[in-house]
Target: Short-subunit dehydrogenase
Amino acid sequence: MTKTENRVAIVTGASSGIGLATARALKETGYRVFGTSRKAVTETSDGIAMLVCDVTDDASVKKMVDEVLREAGRIDLLVNNAGIGLVGGAEESSAEQAQALFDVNVFGVLRVTNAILPIMRRQRAGRIINMSSVLGLIPSPYNALYASTKHAIEGYSESLDHELRTFGIRVVLVEPGLTRTSFEENITRPDQPLSIYDTIRAQVERQMRSGVEGGDAPEVVAQTVVKAATEAQPKRRYTAGKLAGQGRFMRRFLPESVVDRNIRKFSNLPG
Model:
């Protein structure tokens, strides 16, 4: 997939942040880009056609895919970027809130992927890029449910890649670290907060907000997506940014006890 002229890309969650930066970068690379958002966007941005798509709704996903096919006739690249966060103690979220998180971050990826796979199989070509996270590689206190969704995406993507290679389709992971996006817009808080966690939860939120403000620009992740999309022989996963690279190195090469101490130190938790 090194030649991008006339190739068609879909980027979910493209109204802002990493999704918008990715849509713009793919457009500059030569793709015809369709971005999606849960709510209607009245104008296209930089030649990007914006479509409404709620990844938690099968009918909405089908309508979006059908519209892309009517307009472009093919789909060469899917970037599953839509997602939400959740900060809090694991026991502070109800099962319903956890299910809602998984419905966007995991089953949303499944819905959109399943909708475009018949098209890519007919084409005998295609690439799917699933937006994971450094938290798909390492644990993160007070991000247990969010990290669980990204661990699920890691396992799903690696397994799916093996299934689809015989059809000329590759599935690739992109793993950002902390990225300068709107913290408040993308975060969810527990629906059953417990006072015993108030102090540490507030501390974690402050730390994350500070990390986001000093994190990588969305364009760093976007350029990683472009690389993952255009390399003829893609790697299974691409880390995006310094922190993500450090997390991957730590998980792969350091003893578990060292990883454990570093995670507690980073989270300001007692040893």
Q: What stands out?
A: Residues 239 and 245 are 6 Å apart (CA to CA). The longest helix spans residues 144-164.
